[in-house]
Structures are given as structure tokens and as C-alpha cells.
Amino acid sequence: MYQKRVIEAATADIDRAHTAEHGVHSWFQTEWAAEPQPLASDVWVFTPDFQRLLVVEHRWRGLVPPGGKVEVEETPREGAVRELAEEAGVHADLAVRPAFAAVRAYRRDWPPTLNLSYWAIADPAVELGSEPGQPACWVDVNSGWRTFHEGDALVIAEFAQQQRDPS
User: Bridge partners of 58?
Assistant: First the structure.
């Protein structure tokens, strides 16, 4: 399934993440390794003041950061860059450290997998592209925008606050 370099990159990014859900590293090394599922990644793209976030309107998950399934030959970081370009038409340099590592199921009938959230900054005036039926837009980070994984909006807002006030 996934190449060794992909698994090593995912493991390193779990360890490097600003925040990781409790137990995600051991889960990835044991449960995921025993029965690998597709990896997922997304990108939290903020305006330079960290007040707004780029999201796409997913047909059943609501507003979500651009992202998706990582292809077997790409690392989660490479998948995040590809998904950002495909879903929002944005090309941005991702920060060295991922923002968040979590175990996620993207449908109630799908098994859980690893999701790595990377982050970047982009000018809100950048022209957005989008996939058909999945428009991209900017939302206020603190607006309580609806998303499939309800707690993610709060995690993203807290991350943005930490970037605004790193002390």
C-alpha cells in the first residue's frame, strides 16, 4: 500500500505537529499499521492576520479546509499541497510544522484513519478556484462555521489565536 517513505513522513509529521490528539502516535504505529487505511491531509490557509480561514463547501461535510485522500505515492504534505491546488486553486508554501494530527473517520461507515493538518498563509485577494459543486471561500476563524468534525473549528480558532499571540 503506502511506501516506507510515506509512512516515515507521516510519523515524523505527527511528532512535529503543534498539537496532536491524545494517543494518535501510538494508534498510528499499532492499529493503523496493522490495518492501513487511506491517509488524509488538509491545509488550514489563513489570512496574514489569522482572522480568516479558507474553506471549501463539501457536499455533505459542510465547510472544511481544502484536503482529502493522500495518494499512495505521495506524503501527507505532498497530498495537502495537491489538494489545496485542486480544491481552491491556491499555491502556498506550507509551514514546516504541521498544525494538527488527528484520527478521523470521514463517514460514519468508514474506518478511522490519520489526518494531518498543515497550515499556510495566503493573501485573501488571491483568486480562488474550486472544483465543480465545491466552492471555496473565506470564513471568519471565530465565527463558529459549521463543519463535519464539530471540534475542529475550535481547534483551528485556538491555533490561529496562538499564531496571533505566540507568547
Answer: 62
DSSP state of 127: P
Q: pLDDT tens digits, residue range 11-55?
A: 999 999 999 999 999 999 999 999 999 999 999 999 999 999 999
- Of 153, 156, 121, which is closest to residue 19 (Cα–Cα)? 156
Q: Which three cell numbers mark 142?
A: 471565530
Q: Which residue has the cell 485542486?
A: 86
CA 110, CA 85: separation in Å to the nearest integer? Answer: 26
Q: What is the pLDDT of residues 76-113, one digit of tens each?
A: 999 999 999 999 999 999 999 999 999 988 777 888 99
Which DSSP letter does residue 139 get?
A: E
- Comparing CA positions, the residue from 167, 45, 24 lying closest to residue 94 is 45
Decide: helix, strand or coil at residue 137: strand
State the pTM of this model.
0.94
Helix (H, G, I), strand (E, B) or coil at 105: coil
3-state secondary structure of 161: helix
Which cell goes with 77? 504534505
User: Contact, 21 vs 102, CB < 8 A?
Assistant: yes
